[in-house]
Amino acid sequence: MPVLPIEPRHRAAWDRLYAGYAEFYRVEQSAQMRDTVWAWLHDPGHELGGLIAEDAAGQAVGLAHWRPYARPLRATTAMFLDDLFVDPAARGSGAAPGLLGALRGIARGRGWETIRWITADDNHRARTLYDKHATRTWWVTYDMAAGAP
């Protein structure tokens, strides 16, 4: 399954896929929010990168968004995979492993030793796939609002 950088021609399919991703995680997302992320993906000065998986007919069926992050304790840079989503109709097609393999290639090419991501505890199908490609860590994730205490 071909995996390539997101291109302007992918906009409509990317919109559909990213809206599906937001719906899966029950996150309200507006068209304006997608416009912002789309602009980031095409801004050479922005850290966010993106990939699209296409099926044999050239239709976009999956996406991945990634960015570098510093690992001060190790004095290295690694990749953080923010978003990975495959159209439900294309699951099992090889799109997700293809995206993960392409991410590994990007990280290796940049000298980054690690790719890290998080997923929901109840995302069992994805976790089964991830267990084949990565090692689950023991870290617990916290979110702290930046507003008033």
What does this protein structure show overall?
The chain has 149 residues and is α+β, with helices and mostly antiparallel strands. 34% of the residues lie in helices and 23% in strands. The chain contains four helices and five strands; from the N terminus they run βααβββαβα. The protein has a five-stranded mixed beta sheet with strand order 1-2-3-4-5. It is globular and about 45 Å long. The model has no long low-confidence stretch (mean pLDDT 94).
**Percent of residues in helical segments?**
25-40%
Structural class: alpha+beta
What is the averaged pLDDT score? 94
What composes the largest sheet? 5 strands, mixed
The low-confidence parts are: none
Count every beta strand, where a strand is a DSSP E run of 2 or more residues.
Answer: 5
Characteristic terms for this protein:
149 residues, alpha+beta, five-stranded mixed β-sheet, 4 helices, 34% helix, globular
Topology:
Elements (H helix, E strand, L loop, with lengths): L2 E3 L5 H14 L6 H11 L7 E6 L5 E12 L4 E11 L8 H15 L5 E2 L7 H10 L16
Parallel strand pairs: 4-5
Antiparallel strand pairs: 1-2, 2-3, 3-4
Give a brief outline of the structure.
By secondary structure, the chain is of the alpha+beta class. Helices cover 34% and strands 23% of the residues.
